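Continuing the batch. This is chain 6 of the set; chains 1 through 5 are on the previous pages. Same settings as before, nothing changed between runs. Recording input and output for traceability.
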Amino acid sequence: MSKREKSVNALEGPMTEASPEFPERHVLVKCPGCRRVIDQDKLEKSLEVCPRCGRHLRVSGRKRMRITVDEGSFEEWDRGLAATDFLEFPGYAEKLEAAREKSHEADAVVCGRGTIGGHACALFFMDADFMMGSMGSVVGEKITRTFERARELGLPVVGFTVSGGARMQEGTTSLMQMAKVSAAVRRHSEAGLLYVTVLTDPTTGGVTASFAMEGDVIIAEPGALVGFAGPRVVEQTTHKKLPAGFQRSEFLLEHGFCDLIVERKDLVATLAELLALHKGEVPAAGAPHALAHEEPRGRRGARPRRAPEPQSAYDIVKLTRSTDRATALELAQRGLDGFVELHGDRLFADDAAVVAGIGWKGGRVLTVVAIERGNTTKERVRRNFGMAHPEGYRKAQRLMRQAEKFHRPVLCLVDTSGAYCGIGAEERGQGEAIASSLVEMSGLKTPIVSVVVGEGGSGGALALALADRVYMLGSAAYSVVSPEGCASILWKDTKRADEAAAALHITAGDLVELGLVDGMVPDLGLTHAEIAHDMMREVEIALDELSGLSAEELVSRRYDKFRAMGGNRICSQ
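Output for chain 6:
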């Protein structure tokens, strides 16, 4: 390998050279991923993504702007702001001049306003071609002004990050840009406005530790390096070889710090979809996360039942555990017109047992949280059989707070034998996570509807069922403890589980009569599509009724609803 090739490989950037056969017509680019040579024209058509290995190559901030915003819609802000060598740092003036000559930009970010898929927004695009996107006073000032203007104009902000971190040549002033921009992000958020960040390769240092990770929705491009300390610093500090994929987008998603990984070819459509949803609008036809809505067909009475009619409460418990029944996610997918799953609790991990995101049905946009068991054995293992960890409940809380901010109703679908009882779950505060969920839901200033679609197991189920309306499928069960657990604890005999199930009054009919749930959705003998259709009909009716209430009325009535439970069962002595 030549000296130049080694240098390019170290920088992980593409190497270009003229083809000797076609010196004026062809430029070849060597992909830093697969090391294959690609024609520059093909690379541009693929949006600078290697057609062989899928490596997302770096693009300049201005080129990123051109491939993102609607043609002719971009109005640039503060283009003339340029950094000065105010500390007289050795060699900085020369570096600035070289960076301006290379990038044809005044500094490392392009800011302005434009439209994406017809949706107006403020935008910033960081530029790796200018001193590796380092954040100095001008970068901080331009991005801060972008948030301030967006707040004044009532616009969401979409920001593309790429940076090696704070610009050392500007000393502690560069450090203070983290605080300045973060304060502007907070004020923008408090105005009820959306901020979407797109993490590109690389996003590190002070940018990661500030505005890159402060978005309402955080998207990452595949394979992007994202971290606070760079990989070499981590290896030198820990004296350990880093695992494959460390600090890459996929690592970030697994550990709960970004919502989505989106390929560049799908990014504009996904951003347009998110901008529509956060305005409370249904996305345009052909949106990336639209679902094929299956309407029920035929006469239901002519369809044979899949299983015999349950004769006892324990028969219903067995039905909730059947592998043939529709899972919560399946019902959501069959009942909604579209659903964008968002990931992570922003603290530790993304819990696969809790699926959460933004859905739409008809003209209504809503936040959806579902406890998912999975269908196949492999899928059930991945989702921990629907037993949520603390990070699952914290992800749900994060999405509920967003629902309140953007005035979206919340739909929770519950199907769990209970919260996971494991060492790690206890170490990370399972009890605290459930308690926080109850407090969050009790005061949430937006309508909440919960449906127990399978097994409603104790506090793990209640953590997503403190709602304005609580419904159950006819074949669902909801209990303080499993019948087997009750029989074992009280009678030391699990064979009496059927007796315990009856004594606990855990069926939908029992709980409606006790005033603990608001209604039952019959589902026995129906197909999964029909169940989803009927369930969503009840949800929509409830949301129509609740939408007429003010935030204060919602919270007050929700309090009164649960305050009354059990009160009429108490006798004075």
